[in-house]
Specification:
This protein is of the alpha/beta class. The chain has two domains: 248 residues, Aldolase class I (TIM Barrel, Alpha-Beta Barrel); 76 residues, Arc Repressor Mutant, subunit A (Orthogonal Bundle), CATH 1.10.10. Helix content is 40%, strand content 20%. The protein contains 15 helices and 15 strands. It has a nine-stranded mixed β-sheet with strand order 7-8-6-5-4-3-2-1-9, with helices on both faces. Strands 10-11-12 form a three-stranded antiparallel β-sheet, with no helix packed on it. A three-stranded antiparallel β-sheet has the order 13-15-14. Helix 1 packs parallel to helix 2 and helix 2 packs parallel to helix 3. The chain binds iron/sulfur cluster. Iron/sulfur cluster (SF4) binds next to loops.
């Protein structure tokens, strides 16, 4: 099975107050060069060790577009050589709409890059300011135009749900902008107060309550559907054929290699992660294997497989479970699903899946089910 390759870029111009992804705002051009070289060493090392091909490459962060066109092209070429990257590979770049990216997009596209993921978040400048974002709505539109001009038409836009003061009208307007910008994919995430972030320490006033958040989520989903984006995962919607091939590997328990500080890998049924430290990465510290006893659900177990599959609208199917484990879905899971309201979870002859209302309380359902 072909691998997915994830390359993490741990640099951002400024830190958004809700974000807990690993990144630093203190860096120079020399650091970007040094980091690119460190990534290249690790890509080659993994390539030599695994001797496997890859069919997706994802530049995530942080803000990978800060690497610039030449470094991105160099990294794509290194992955191509080390993992026989297929000619039809999905190659995604996350980018911040605040930056001038026309040249970056041209170089990325020339090197084979074919998908962009932009952190649009909302189509309202006041809400963007409240979120601590550096960009405006006009900058998102300019960035999308630059992507199209560079020949990149597979475009994913991130939307945030649950911003202080956000109303269903804001959400519908944002979805309409996504459709008008010819997005092929929309990720609509609920704002979470992640431990250790400024938002968690001092949450903004006027955050939507639970009922309001549920309403925002349904508004987003219905509005996205009305523009032809079908839901395939808790937070992800796509035009037909434009689901994220890379992210589907995570939910389908397929193998992937993540390189860079805090990046995770899943190989031969084992999970690894690099230490959450740029200096440790520069020192060449190896990834650490996750200790199965540290997690409530053991890695590569039927429970973990079910937990990931139940994020998808297709859910956990009998067919996929049989292919993976050679048996039917455990009866006890079906009994527990049957004991929960059918407005949240459905168990039928094809398998078990959550409804949209179920997605909103998926953690609670999974802990009851598994
Ligand atoms: S730009 Fe993205 S990765 Fe960087 S701090 Fe903001 S949300 Fe996090």
């Amino acid at each position: 099975m072909s691998l997915g390759i994830y390359l993490h870029t741990p640099f951002c111009v400024s830190k958004c107050p809700y974000c807990d992804f690993y990144s630093t705002t203190t860096f120079s051009e020399d650091d970007l060069d040094r980091y690119t070289q460190a990534l290249i060493c690790e890509i080659r090392r993994w390539g030599n060790t695994l001797q496997q091909s890859a069919d997706t490459l994802y530049f995530g962060g942080g803000t990978p577009s800060l690497l610039g066109g030449n470094r991105l092209a160099l990294l794509i070429e290194t992955v191509r050589q080390s993992f026989s990257l297929s000619s039809s590979a999905e190659i995604t770049l996350e980018a911040n709409p605040a930056d001038k990216l026309a040249d970056v997009f041209s170089a990325f596209a020339a090197a084979g890059g074919n998908r962009l993921s932009l952190g649009m978040q909302t189509a309202d400048d006041t809400l963007l300011k409240l979120l601590g974002r550096r960009h405006t709505v006009a900058q998102t539109e300019r960035t999308v135009a630059a992507a199209h001009k560079a020949g990149i038409h597979n475009l994913s836009l991130d939307l945030m749900l649950g911003i202080a003061g956000q109303t269903p009208t804001h959400v519908k307007h944002a979805v309409e902008r996504c459709a008008n910008l010819d997005a092929t994919h929309v990720s609509a995430y609920l704002l979470k107060l992640e431990d250790g972030t400024p938002y968690a320490l001092s949450p903004p006033t006027d955050l939507p309550n639970e009922d309001e958040t549920v309403f925002l989520y349904h508004s987003a989903a219905q509005s996205l559907e009305s523009y032809g984006f079908f839901q395939y995962e808790i937070s992800n919607f796509a035009k037909i054929g434009f689901e994220s091939r890379h992210n589907l590997k995570y939910w389908n328990s397929e193998p992937y290699v993540g390189i860079g500080p805090a990046a995770h890998s899943f190989l031969d049924g084992k999970r690894f992660y690099y230490p959450r430290s740029l200096s440790a990465f520069f020192r060449g510290e190896s990834p650490i294997e996750e200790n199965p006893t540290d997690t409530a659900i053991p890695e590569n177990s039927p429970e973990e497989f079910a937990m990931l599959r139940l994020r998808l609208t297709n859910g956990l199917t009998e067919q996929d479970f049989r292919v993976r484990f050679g048996s039917v879905i455990p009866t006890v899971w079906r009994e527990r699903a049957a004991a929960l309201p059918s407005s949240l979870i459905i168990a039928d002859s094809t398998g078990i899946r959550l409804t949209r209302d179920g997605f909103l309380v998926s953690d609670a359902i999974l802990s009851r089910l598994l």
